[in-house]
Amino acid sequence: MSPDQPFRIAVLISGSGTNLQAIIDAVAGGDIPARIEQVISNRPGAGGLARAERAGIGTEVLDHRAFAERGHYDAVLAERLEAIRPDLVVLAGFMRILTDDFVTRFMGRLINIHPSLLPAYRGLHTHQRAIDAGESRHGCSVHYVIPELDAGPVIAQAAVPIHAGDTAETLQDRVQAMEHRLYPEVVRWIAEGRVALQAGRVWLDGKPLASPPCLEPEAAS
């Protein structure tokens, strides 16, 4: 991408937008060669909207409660996104399961961050489930989104140890701190053209990934 045609990002949120903020900061600091074109929330009053507005980024609320059918909502959302012409759509705490039609339409330019070391612990309540299972490690994964929930090819991960006495809340705090480091890094790789989805596999620097790189606890301490 040239300065006249920057890499264009759209971000979908539902809540406070801490991962959005990490990406905003990385763009503002010059670490991500891109521009965030729009932040769209399905919830009025989501904290991430204020974060975007403070950064001078356009925002929109598309309230899912105004739509009787999930497919209709996703079709309208897709139209809004296509008007933005994003090179990448980032799910940053967007708490909706997207329809297959929507995902297929944006396949290869739609990414999400999930709070587990995928493929372990897809779905919800990942921190408590990892503790209950007696795991020694937990973490987060950035992946391309495919129609199957939390099953898309993983681009990169970050890990944290699970300590004796951890609760879901204390573990979540450590994982979230890693999310704020990992997500901007992966967005940067994509904006730089280093990462792509080809034939259902993640390619990094011109080679298919055998396994996703993982930021280990020692590197994050």
Q: Report the sheet with the most strands, covering strand number, pairing sense and barrel closure.
A: 8 strands, mixed
**Number of DSSP strand runs:** 11
Overall 3D geometry? globular
| Rg from alpha-carbon coordinates | 17 Å
Distance between the termini: 34 Å
Binned strand content: 25-35%
Write out the strand line-up for the largest beta sheet, numbering strands in chain order. Answer: 3-2-1-4-5-6-7-11
Helix vs. strand class = alpha/beta
In round numbers, the mean pLDDT is 96
**SSE order:** EHEHEHEHEHEEHEEEEH
Helix content: 25-40%
Low-confidence stretches: none
Number of helices: 7
Binding site for (6R)-10-formyltetrahydrofolate: 70, 95-98, 112
Pfam families: Formyl_trans_N (PF00551)
Keywords: Purine biosynthesis, Transferase
Domain Formyl transferase N-terminal: 8-187
Task: Give the tags.
221 residues; alpha/beta; eight-stranded mixed beta sheet; three-stranded antiparallel beta sheet; 7 helices; globular; purine biosynthesis; phosphoribosylglycinamide formyltransferase activity
